[in-house]
Amino acid sequence: MSTSAEQNPQEEEAKLPEANEEEDAAAAAVLPQEVEEPGTEEGKSEVDELRDKYLRLHAEFDNFRRRTSKERLELFKTANQELMVALIPVLDDLERAQVAMKDAQDVNAVREGVELVFAKFQNLLQQKGLKAMEAVGQPFDAEVHEAITQIPAPNEEMKGKVIDQVEKGYYLNDKVVRFAKVVIGA
Prior knowledge:
By secondary structure, the protein is an alpha+beta fold. It has helices at residues 4-7, 9-15, 21-30, 41-78, 81-103, 107-127; strands at residues 130-132, 145-151, 162-167, 170-172, 175-178, 180-185. The radius of gyration is 32 Å and the shape is elongated. Belongs to the GrpE family.
């Protein structure tokens, strides 16, 4: 039984990606400096051997490239798995709070329950590296703040500083993941 490569060698050659400069350099490192003349039997066998080494190296590199690409896609698919698993207990607490609110007569008890769930949620996010920005009273910084509008500053000291925060900004491990939307004193 013959393989598809034996049936149509032109198709097999078409499937091989073009060699780049790195692959050429790697192939040159494998090739000996002095090669027998191709006309002799030793020269032909040496050329065949080197060609075989080159093709194997090329195939190995191609397999490596495919494998790392596949692993990378898999990593992207499961990157948030740890966070999602950590959030499930908070989701359970919110569902219990929702059920309790339907029958609750005491608003203070419901409020305390929701505040406990909120604190648990904030604590979990902090453990995962999320940190809220402190913006009010700080000098405006375009690297972490997004100016929504400017209003007259209540005093001279507040000019160029954040007067109000419309939406909180957050850091994830010292990287800004959401800019704080702020009002600046003019």
